[in-house]
Design goal:
Elements: E1 9-10, H1 18-31, H2 39-49, E2 53-55, E3 58-59, E4 75-88, E5 91-100, H3 107-117, H4 120-128, H5 132-139, E6 159-164, H6 173-183, E7 189-194, E8 197-200, H7 204-208, E9 217-223, H8 227-239, E10 269-272, E11 274-277, E12 280-287, E13 292-294, H9 302-331, H10 333-346, H11 349-360, H12 365-381, H13 386-389, H14 391-406, E14 409-411, E15 421-425, H15 430-434, E16 441-446, H16 454-461, E17 466-468, E18 482-486, E19 491-494, H17 498-520, E20 526-527, E21 533-540, H18 543-551, E22 557-561, H19 575-588, E23 594-597, H20 625-630, H21 632-645, E24 651-655, H22 661-678, E25 684-689, H23 692-696, H24 698-702, E26 707-710, H25 712-720, H26 738-754, E27 757-760, H27 768-777, E28 781-784, H28 789-797, H29 801-812, H30 817-824
Parallel strand pairs: 1-4, 3-5, 12-15, 15-16, 16-17, 21-22, 21-28, 22-23, 23-24, 24-25, 25-26, 26-27, 27-28
Antiparallel strand pairs: 2-3, 4-5, 6-9, 7-8, 7-9, 10-19, 11-17, 12-18, 13-14, 18-19, 20-21
Helix pairs in contact: 1-2, 3-12, 6-10, 9-10, 9-14, 10-14, 11-12, 12-14, 18-19, 19-21, 21-22, 27-29, 29-30
């Protein structure tokens, strides 16, 4: 049945107020039998918590999720107001598109509607045409006008090139972010054109609005003093994939589970969605509701509002950087990359300019900011490519982060479950998903989203079974309803029978059995089949993780990132604060060893209150041990706290970013002076191997320390001269490149000759291929993320060290990382 017909369109109408217009559009729906007339109150209720004005004189009022029971059939009605009606301060609406949706059937019309938003001439015509059929045709997918005008605000330049966007998802968030990062490095103005749209290459939202999906042909042009080099750089970057691996996913394990559709035959009522994260779970349904943000729509002091917006953007940026680091440490840089895209959203020049213009016109900072980002959310949500449209969720997530900081009050703050459950939501932002506790959220199901969304990727990294895109019917389920979630088949089963539960158990038994076996044996030593012991320890970043590391089977802590004590505060922690924190973690280890790395900041890790210098090449500047020398009082305070904690258990101290022998000697001398000063006993002292000079001088370094710990992430980037955080280069900066492996081999040989041991604490230490190669090269300790401990130990117990040595020898003879990975697979 058609969702929009001429009978549901009223042209030439008038309305004295927004409320009158909403009641008129609901009257059209009620007359057609689509809704209960009381749905008008629900739409008015929505207006109190959300701005439904899209731009270009168009609004899309719709009801609250709790009132879907008032909808008889999904339908859309249109009220045309040629003279317009005030929708909000400065907003005049001429086309009211009322939506009553029980499912997702209306999304096609919204897609066409957002096309209208992008074409001002179309919007003006629909606001005045007396022909209802013309409005229906335009919104239900009739061919768009031939050769619509291009953007009135952006123009192409004479010099440029054409290229096809690589990757199966086209120019979506990650590659677009990479393109923006590159474009911002050039003073030249740069444009990207696709079809009849033109984007500013330095604006992430502008690029996404192009809708450049898989196989899209784009034209890149530039004008300015360095336009030539900018075009060469961008052409090469796009041709190389902008950091994508050809599938649009961040790595070989991040793709959605393959599924051709629901395959399980369940007896209970099934709701079909999209398989997003494998696994099965049974539990009570828990509905997730987002908070309500309250603010005044206008303000009298524009300068004060502009300052408030700048402060909120700065704070949100810091929050996102912290969130990026947290997710990066637990799930890897690729999965955390979306939070870099969120930061880019907040710095988008077009969106910031739009918000500031509204503020100068009298809008409050939160009202202006919400209108600016929601207008762009509407554009993105209507793009025909599902992956690009899915970025609307990310933009709204970033936008709401700032909005919360600007709000007068935040009511009904999002509640998280306190008991094990299956969480159901309209949609989950990446920030929401990153906060979920996998021990309580047994599975999650969303009405919207797709398997390539960043929410799905994070859910997979947390091992939470997930089904997305299940439609709005899941939101009608009562809290506490027994449900079964089959992430592999993409099904949510309501009121599952005993037979259903048995079938689900069979489907997921293999995965569950393997994971359970790994967990059960997590405390067993990692002893190879030919009798060699490899220690598997944890990388941790805060006090609570010390306990989790022990519970997960960790045999100690191979890297405590002490930076956690210094971030998200306005001054450095005192000696007593640090000593208390280190002591608590040492005691939590119950006698297992803990390596405390001294403060490692600089490069990509900045702490504002430490007055770190602005550097042209921060990764080659005052970083790690160099920073500690420049702030020796801070360094000595931290060492005193570490030595105090050593009285309560086995502590080892490790220095980061040692490049020169004199740096190590100076650091050891300071540490020894501090130890004698407080009367502490000796502790093992080690250093990180992160730069090629440390490898070349490893025989000399080995005579001055008790152990080496190879930071494979930094060693890779300094060896290959590739910033591991650069989205364009990240895929090539592979720690299994033979150049890196040969440096690791040299390090181990130098350590063996001096009689000291070698550990590894970078990303490849937890990679199954990396485990094989590193142990084969003679690395005796692997420091990995807590969720990886049991699996790494289980892998080692299934391998022969002799076989790993043979593989490692062959890997050293390879010529690239791909050959190494193929060899070990």
């Amino acid at each position: 049945m058609a969702l929009l017909t001429p009978a549901l369109v009223k042209t030439g109408a008038t309305a004295a107020s927004k409320a009158e217009a909403i009641r008129a559009v609901v009257a059209l729906l009620a007359k057609a039998g689509k809704v209960d007339p009381r749905y008008a109150d629900s739409m008015l209720g929505r207006e109190k918590v959300a701005n439904t004005y899209l731009g270009n004189g168009i609004a899309i009022p719709h009801g609250l999720p709790k009132d879907r029971g008032l909808i008889h059939d999904t339908a859309i009605a249109v009220l045309q107001l040629p003279d317009g009606v005030e929708w909000g301060p400065g907003d005049r609406v001429h086309l009211v598109v009322g939506i009553a949706a029980r499912n997702d059937e209306h999304l096609g019309i919204l897609t066409n509607l957002t096309d209208v938003l992008g074409e001002e001439a179309d919007a003006r015509r629909l606001a005045t045409t007396p022909n209802a059929a013309e409005i229906v045709a335009r919104l239900t997918g009739a061919p768009a006008p031939t050769a619509p005008p291009r953007s009135a605000t952006l123009t192409e330049f004479a010099d440029g090139f054409e290229i096809t966007v690589p990757g199966v998802h086209g120019l979506h968030a990650r590659p677009a972010t990479a393109l923006v990062d590159l474009a911002k490095g050039f003073p030249a103005a740069i444009r990207v054109a696709h079809g009849n749209r033109i984007a500013d290459a330095k604006s992430l939202v502008s690029l996404l609005r192009l809708g450049a999906g898989p196989g899209a042909r784009v034209r890149v042009t530039a004008e300015g003093p360095d336009a030539d080099i900018a075009l060469i750089t961008l052409r090469n970057a796009i041709a190389d994939g902008l950091g994508e691996d050809g599938r649009g996913e961040p790595g070989p394990r991040d793709g959605p589970p393959t599924s051709t559709g629901p395959s399980a035959d369940y007896e209970g009522r099934t709701i079909a969605g999209v398989a997003a994260s494998p696994g099965c779970a049974v539990g009570a349904l828990f509905p997730f509701a987002r908070d309500r943000i309250v603010y005044a729509p206008t303000a009298k002091d524009p300068q004060r509002e502009l300052a408030a917006l700048d402060q909120a953007l700065h704070t949100a940026g810091r929050q996102l950087n912290t969130l990026y680091m947290d997710v990066w440490k637990t799930s890897g840089a690729a999965r955390a990359g979306i939070f870099r895209a969120h930061e880019e959203f907040l710095n988008d020049p077009e969106m910031l300019d739009a918000a500031r213009v509204l503020i100068r016109k009298g809008r409050s900072a939160p009202a202006a900011w919400e209108e600016a980002y929601e207008e762009r959310v509407g554009f993105l949500a209507g793009l025909k490519d599902a992956v690009l449209a899915g970025r609307a969720v990310d933009l709204r997530d970033a936008g709401r982060r700032v909005l919360r900081l600007l709000a007068d009050t935040v009511e009904d703050e999002s509640s998280l479950p306190t008991e094990p459950c299956i969480l159901v939501a309209e949609d989950l932002t990446p920030s929401d998903t990153a906060r979920l506790d996998p021990t309580l959220v047994l599975g999650l199901c969303t009405a919207g989203g797709g398997p390539t969304s960043h929410t799905s990727i994070i859910a997979r990294s947390l091992d939470i079974p997930a089904v997305v895109g299940a439609g709005n019917s899941v939101l009608d389920l009562a809290p506490g309803t027994p449900v079964l979630l089959d992430g592999g088949s993409g099904l949510l089963v309501v009121q599952p029978t005993d037979t259903d539960r048995a079938r689900a158990q069979t489907l997921c038994q293999a995965v569950d059995t393997r994971r359970a076996a790994e967990r059960q044996d997590c405390f067993k030593p990692a002893l190879t089949t030919d009798g060699h012991r490899i220690e598997v320890v944890a990388n941790i970043s805060d006090g609570a993780e010390a306990v989790h590391a022990v519970d997960a089977g960790g045999e100690g802590v191979g890297l405590l990132r002490t930076e956690f004590l210094f971030v998200n505060r306005d001054a450095a922690p005192t000696e007593d604060e640090q000593a208390e924190a280190y002591t608590a973690m040492v005691q939590a280890m119950n006698g297992l060893p803990m390596i405390l790395r001294t403060l490692d900041v600089g490069g990509d890790k900045a702490i504002p209150y430490l007055s770190m210098p602005a550097e042209q090449n921060p990764f080659l500047g005052e970083r790690g041990i160099r920073f500690c020398f420049a702030h020796e009082d801070l360094f000595r305070t931290q060492l005193r706290a570490m030595f105090r904690a050593s009285a309560r258990g086995p502590v080892r101290i490790m220095f980061p970013m040692i490049a020169l022998l004199e740096e190590l000697h100076r650091a050891r001398a300071i540490a020894e002076a501090v130890r004698l000063e407080i009367g502490a006993g000796p502790v093992e002292i080690g250093m990180m191997i992160e730069v090629p000079s440390a490898v070349v001088m490893a025989p000399e370094f080995a005579r001055a320390v008790d152990f080496f710990s190879i930071g494979t992430n930094d060693l890779t980037q300094y060896t290959l001269a590739m910033d591991r955080m650069n989205p364009v280069l990240a895929r090539q900066a592979d720690g299994l490149h033979p150049a890196v492996l040969r440096l690791i081999d040299q390090t181990v040989k130098a350590a063996d000759a001096a009689g000291i041991w070698v550990g590894a604490c970078g990303g490849i230490a937890g990679d199954p291929r990396g485990v094989t190669i590193l142990t084969g090269l003679g690395v005796r300790e692997l420091s990995v993320s807590i969720p990886s401990i049991a699996a790494v130990k289980a892998q080692i117990r299934d391998q022969s060290l002799a076989a790993n040595r043979a593989l490692a020898t062959r890997a050293l003879a390879c010529t690239d990382a791909a050959a190494v990975r193929a060899l070990v697979s």
